[in-house]
Amino acid sequence: MKRAKEVTRVQELVYELKVEQAMTGDVVAVTPQTLMVEFREILRVNRISGTPVLENGELVGIVSIEDLIKALASSELEATVGEKMTTEVKTLYADEPLIQAVGKFARYGFGRFPAVDRQGKLVGILTQGDIVKGLLKRLEIDYHEEEIHRYRASHIFEDIVADEAALLFRYNVIGQDFTRAGEASSKLKRTLSRLGINPRIIRQVAIISYEAEMNIVIFTDGGELVAEVRPERIKIEAIDGGPGIPDIEKAMHPGFSTAPEWVREMGFGAGMGLLNIQACSDEMKLESTVGVETHLEAIVYVEGGKGDAERDSQ
Predict the structure, then answer these.
(1) What is the pTM of this model?
(2) How many domains is the chain built from?
(3) Cα–Cα 20 to 30 A to 126, which of 38, 138, 241, 311?
């Protein structure tokens, strides 16, 4: 049985949290007409390293401390922000998972991203520091909630008298609906938490179910996510009636993706979904018939799985 490293709570949270839960909503902005000497003072007073540039309420660029340094070096502090700003702005959607933001920071190397709503209106700004603070805040909240709330269902399998017992949870996933993407996996995660499943196991299942759900959303018209919970293991199935995968071996290569560019611009379809599922699964099986359906099955063992193997090797 293939084993890999344990998923940490922080890794789980970047899938669970949305950009809007970590971003700074009270955004300091400038206009293209703002002078660089004025911009320097704005950075100093607000203790920030960059701002969006708005004209008539529309996002037209972003200007950073790096632009200010270049202006200082060339004695151009009387130049306008419009002359020095970056106009090809990459943005994040406020309602997209934080994992997409993490991927964009790694991909572009930027210090900040403006966050917009689905209509394109600026609603916040996200820095790497905001991500760290958001994660730490959520970890603190989770700790206190766990101490206060203990769900009686944690003993459910102990209370059932049967030769064999299993719980089945089924979630519908709507294709191309990015505003609700991630809902099914979030519901499953909450359910497992209330059942008292080991947090280590929940982390693995959360990433598997999220990546499987996103594949359904991105590439198909819809499908379902099914979780079968037994005392010894959890099985996750993702089934859809989509176009199918012509070459499964190629689909398993890092970075390979058939997602259209507009989907990539939204922060999805980076080509790591199946690999993330494989990394978090003790067993994984993927079957696909072109033009018919794709059926993914992933199993996480409650005891003796990869999380235990990683822990024992340390």
Answers:
(1) 0.58
(2) 2
(3) 38
